[in-house]
Specification:
Strand order of the largest sheet: 10-13-16-9-17
CATH superfamily of the largest domain: P-loop containing nucleotide triphosphate hydrolases
Strand content: 15-25%
Number of helices: 21
Distance between the termini: 98 Å
Number of domains: 3
CATH topology of the largest domain: Rossmann fold
Helix content: 25-40%
Structural class: alpha/beta
Number of strands: 20
Shape: elongated
CATH architecture of the largest domain: 3-Layer(aba) Sandwich
Amino acid sequence: PSRCVNPQCINRTRFSLDVDDSSFVDFQKIRIQETQAELPRGSVPRTFDVIVRGEMVESVQPGDRCSLTGTLIVIPDIAQLSTPGLRAETGGGNRGRASEREAGLTGLKALGVRDLNYKLAFLCCHIESNNTKFGGKDFSHENVDSLTLWKSMSDHEHSVLKSMSEDKRIAENLVDTLFPNIYGNDEVKLGVLLMLFGGVPKMSKDEGTTLRGDINVCLVGDPSTAKSQILKTVEEFCPRAIYTSGKASSAAGLTAAVVKDEDSFEFVIEAGALMLADNGVCCIDEFDKMDPKDQVAIHEAMEQQTISITKAGVKATLNARASILAAANPVGGRYDRSRPLKHNVQLSAPIMSRFDLFFVVDYAIARKIIENHRGISNRSHRETKYSIEDVQKYITFAKCFKPQISKEAADALVSEYKRLRLSDSSNAATSSWRITVRQLESLIRLSEALALEQPDIALDDDFDSEILHVNEDKENESESMEVDDTSIKRSKVDQSSMKITFEKYKHLADMLVLHMRSDEEAMSEEDYEGVRQDSLIEWYLEMIEGELETEEDLLTQRTICHRVIRRLVTEDHVLIEMDSDDKNPLLCVHPNYVVTDQ
């Protein structure tokens, strides 16, 4: 208080803090900055100090987009007092007078009114994240599993995710939704989509070593080939994405900088682009024009996904778990197809080995650019099947799963890695870049991302942890078996018995094809329309009737046959659907398919 409440007391200065009767709360000062969408034209983003207390401390992280509720207040501008200015001087005119000797320091009036300066601040009482997707809460995939996320969604979101998981052309529809105005470059757009899904990060239990799951992609192409447009699209789509230019950014701006705090006068860490994009995507344009010393600074962030700082007495290791989407121009401004990739880009070998995917963007977008200038694209805008919000929810929900690599997939990855190493050693001069163990890890991450993009998950109305499975079918299991009780259905069919070898799959596929070919030959071309899926399954069960002993065997073989048929239609394109009946389509054999082993 400024003075004692007792009218008989004239005490104004001799007060002490009573610690026992005081209550203490946590305190944090946050600095917010204007978003690019709200920034006035030609203006620099403005910042503002926000004060939070109690349970709201540490509720937000650098890079979050939030809405704040509170009160505008004024606080003393302590930093203003530390600015260089006039100092207090001792009285030197009349040293003999006792009264002036007792006064001590004088000249405080020379400080002027600097001690009365105040600045605006915002006392926050509520923070709400703008990145919420499910149930009005923000979350990280490390703390939320798929079952909890599924229960927090509404019935409409359940139906949307279920229909998307059963979509046979999910990859094409997702790409069309993300990049509706970019013509061609389908492989590039698919690679960027896999980057958004990402792989599965892993950590060893004993040593604590981490293996990154984020995918790094680099786009290489001549100027005006929509590279920057792809980066801008990803920045607008991802709830946590940072766009920066490699030429205009320094190493400290990309990683982190150490600055002096204006209030405490201590050195603190200011987050850079990679830290702000933690658990998101960092888009770096003009990547090839970065200084080599700045490229070296992000080596650790691209592989270990951490940033180590030792400056001005500050030693810290910070997380930078972000995927990097970079765009670079070839040497000389034009891509030389007669030379390998490593001679067309001005990147070092360690940087190139840290990218999982390299794409060379071509001139296929020339026609689309002309249409945009003529205004044709505005009149012929194609409709996308899903909205941006649906794709965001689908990716967020898919990243909750952790697909496992089967033995067959592991053998295929090892054989492909051996082939890459062999071709690299035999054609070292013409290879794109040196094949290292990082390329094997890249193959694993891309395989996991592809499994997340096309999930083989049964999303029933009574979704629970027991029916969450990732296997090789592409359809909802409940649609393939004519049993009313779903609980009996799941208990009867053992998921481990659904796995078959490739020889068994090839034998079953040839049986079905030969049967359909024989029916087609028995009838004329005008009369033959095809075979219904259920009829084909019933014929197969009759052929193996002697091998079926229990009802469980019957359900297992029915499910296997159904999944083989769906794979022949959607993956191998051996069978063709003649109508749009999803439950029992009319099937016929592709005329160009030839049975190799009869």
